[in-house]
Amino acid sequence: MQLVSALTAITRRTFIMMGRYMFNTVSVLISIYMVFCLAFFGMKAFAAASPSRALDGTFEGTIVGFFIWTLAVFGYSGLSWELINEAQTGTLEQLYLSPNGFKRLCTLQVVVDFLVNAAVAVVFLFAMMATTGRWLNLDAASIAPLVIVTLLGAYGVGFVLGGLALVFKRIQSFFQIVQFAFVGCLVIPWRIAWARFLPLSMGNGLIYRVMAEGKRLWQLPAADVLTALAVGVAYLAVGLAIFSACEKAAKNRGLLGHY
Amino acid sequence: MKHQDGVALEVDRLTKVFRDRGAREVRAVDGISFQVAPGEIVGLVGPNGAGKTTTIKCILGLVRPTAGRVTILGRDVASHYPGILSQVSAVLEGSRNLYWRMTVWENIEFFTGIHGLPRRQYRRYFEHLVERFGLADKRDVEVRKLSQGMKQKTAVVCALAKRTPLMFLDEPTLGLDVETSYELRKTLRELAGEEHRTIVLSSHNMDVVQDVCRRVIIVTAGHVVADDSIGHLIGLFKTRAYRLALRGPAPEGLEASLAAHFRGVDVQNSPYMTQVRLRLPEPDDIYMLMDLLRDAGATIEEISQEEPDLEKVFLEIVRKEKVNQCNS
Fold first, then answer.
1. Cα dihedral angle (B20, B23, B24, B26), rounded to 10 degrees?
2. Who's near B209: CB < 8 A, 6+ residues apart?
3. Is B18 in CB contact (< 8 Å) with chain A?
């Protein structure tokens, strides 16, 4: 019952804040869509000039990559921004006074954010497909589990940055680095052995196979799916461990109320 | 210190040592111990940097203590964390404890929600609190649009709405005007009595503490220097100190004549009015004082006995403690 009340409260707050900061919410979506359009039309112009048609399969990859990147960036930055904002406004200590425990509240917030972000990303996905004229295979039963597995790594990074925010407060410069790093993880071909162990990389490859090549989840190599899952869980576990260590340091040094 | 029945809060040798970058130790809290009975309203006072807020944050688990033990309603905080927080609420930074982009009502629902209280079940109680604190017509207004006093009241309502038996209020009247401060402490005092809440109130404002609390714990340099009922503490510092206003300049030889009989004689002379302060060792000495004044040819315009208040008691205790520290 306690957890249900907490989940209800967090969900309501998420929607209230989205409404109160509507201009910011909409402008983020528009700016991401504009970046996508720039990338797509730039590539299209480049492909038209290329006699080999070497970029033919890349358009689908770009759509899938942008879809995953959007979810990953929303996911990791949502959590860490939340912590930075809470510390700055002075509400962080009140969240720590919840008998549900702060980590559990964070987890509930991650779940709510994921559902909201997923809904937004799906709309964004349709916008991208409509813009490019490339309609991908949307097998929800195969895509949803792969998206969750892929994003585990992003949330792991989110917990690391969230933990650092508890101790160092101002870590905004890290955000841009991580955004570029995520682009790198999505661009590097996951067939390269070491690239499989990067966050997002392998999951993105598997989602590409479902969405662009029309494969079903059970038609994918089990070893690949398990590797993606293991990598995601490992990043999340490391993220949570670092978050706990930072939380302990913040409590030892009395930093929770600082901003 | 063993747990006793009927103890709402027990703090036993609580210590917090911070280490700065040069590994220098700062003992913010130095072995503080005290108990608070259920339904008691206790003031925690001390000069800046005395360790009041750190003590409260250590009790709440927001700062990890270096040593010591805290029990809330007989349960050890460290081993029952965070579940034990269902018994506790706190206002730590007043209006900063709120979401300014959310309304009064939305803040109440959010903070009680994460505390595990279903909003539908407690709706009437929330309405009662909002009414009681004079926020009824502001309940759907975003906090950022409220005055400082109303923000502060909203923070207190959010803490009260959790219906916890134990509450911590750290500087609840900070930044409030006299009227709002008076109104807030009146409501707090009434509600605490009606709902039998245990409250630990930390404030720099001695009027607030004297008005709301029955007992006070004075902390300096991280340790408790006084823990007593306010009435008893004031009684200890009660002296037969008098203030007199005499018409015109002081008659010649008056100061010497008074100083020969009484202690603490202070004469402030001016052409139109003379202020005299002194302490009488015995109650009957008032007659001797009157005789001396009459013999000196002084005309009394006004006479009053100086009553000590918590602020004077506090300043005296802190001053003595500083002297003791310097001596040791």
1. 50
2. B43, B45, B201, B203, B216, B230, B310
3. yes
Q: Which residues on chain A are in Cβ contact (under 8 Å) with B142?
A: 20
Degrees (nearest 5) of the Cα angle A20, A23, A24?
90
Contact A251 B113 (CB under 8 A): no
List of chain A residues whose C-beta atoms are within 8 Å of the C-beta of residue B63: 251-252, 254, 256
Cβ–Cβ gap A99/B100 under 8 Å: no
A143 vs A208: CA distance, rounded Å: 9
Which residues pair with residue B217 across a beta bridge?
B44, B227
Task: Give me the count of residues in chain A.
Answer: 259
What is the distance between the alpha carbons of residues B226 and B232, in angstroms, rounded to a whole number? 11
Nearest chain A residue to B168 by CA distance is A97
Whole-complex ipTM? 0.88
The angle at the Cα of B128, spanning B127 to B131, to the nearest 5 degrees, equals: 85
The answer to whether B80 faces chain A, any CB pair under 8 Å, is no
The tens-digit pLDDT sequence of chain B (328 residues) is 344 458 999 999 999 999 877 778 889 999 999 999 999 999 999 888 889 999 999 999 999 999 999 999 999 999 999 999 999 999 987 678 899 999 999 999 999 999 999 888 899 999 999 999 999 999 999 999 999 889 999 999 999 999 999 999 998 888 778 888 888 888 888 888 888 899 999 988 888 888 899 999 999 989 899 999 988 887 777 777 889 999 999 888 888 899 988 888 889 988 889 999 988 888 888 899 999 999 988 999 999 887 778 888 888 888 888 888 777 7
Interface residue B101 vs chain A (CB under 8 A): yes
Q: Which of B138, B154, B56 is nearest to B98 (CA)?
A: B154
Distance from CA of A160 to the nearest CA of B (A): 20
- Spell out the domains of chain B, with CATH numbers in brackets: 9-235 (3.40.50.300), 239-305 (3.30.70.3400)
d(CA B49, CA B32): 15
Angle at which helix B104-114 crosses helix A2-20, to 10 degrees, equals: 150
For tokens 């797509």, the residue is A40
Annotated domain spans of chain A = 2-49+56-252
Rounded to whole angstroms, the Cα distance separating B85 from B260 reads 62
DSSP B135-189: -GGGTTSBGGGS-HHHHHHHHHHHHHTT--SEEEEESTTTT--HHHHHHHHHHHH
B83 touches chain A (CB under 8 A): yes
Alpha-carbon torsion A16, A19, A23, A27, what sign? Answer: positive
Residue from B62, B80, B101 to probe the interface with A (highest A Cβ count within 10 Å): B62
CB within 8 Å: B102 and A17: yes
